Amino acid sequence: MANQPVETVGASGDKIKIVLAILAAIAGVVGFYFLSDKATAVRAAALVGGLVAAIAIAWTSASGRDFLNFSKEAVRETKKVVWPTRKEALQMTAIVFGFVLVMALFLWGTDKLLEVVLYDLILGWKR
C-alpha cells in the first residue's frame, strides 16, 4: 500500500486572504486604466502597487506560499534545461522539413497508385 500524502483543509482565513489578493491585483489593473489621464509613472505605480499588495497578501496564506514555492521550483527546473544551440536547432528543423517532404511525396504517390489500381484496373473508369 503506497503512502498517500495527506492534504489538510485550509482555514477560511486563507480563503479570505486569497480573495483579497485577487481583489488587490484587480484593483491595480483597474487603477492603471482608471488613471489614463495621469502620467505614465502614476499609472505604472498603481499597477505595480496593486500587484505587490496582491503578492504580499497571498504570501501570508498557505496556498499562496505553496503557489509561490511551486513557481520558484519551476524557474529553477527551467534553468536546468540544456537548450540546443542555434546550429542544432536549424539542423533539427531541416530534418523535420525533410521528413515532412518525403512523407508528403510518399502519401501522394500512394494516393496516385491506389487511384490507378482502383479506377483504371479494377473499375475500368478511364479518365
Description of the molecule:
The chain has 127 residues and is mainly α. The protein contains 4 helices and no strands. The chain has helices at residues 12-34, 40-59, 62-80, 86-122. The relative contact order is 0.07. InterPro entries: SecE_bac, SecE_sf, Translocase_SecE/Sec61-g. Pfam families: SecE. This is Protein translocase subunit SecE.
Give a summary of the structure in a few sentences:
The protein is an all-alpha fold.
What descriptive keywords fit this protein?
mainly alpha, 127 residues, 4 helices
SSE succession:
HHHH
**Low-confidence regions:** none
Q: Give the averaged pLDDT, no decimals.
A: 88
What oligomeric assembly is this protein in? single chain
Report the total helices.
4
Form type: elongated
**How many angstroms does the end-to-end distance come to?**
69 Å
Strand residue content: under 5%
What percent of the residues sit in helical stretches (DSSP H or I)? over 70%
By DSSP, the count of extended strands is 0
The computed structural class is mainly alpha
Largest sheet: none
Radius of gyration (CA) equals 30 Å
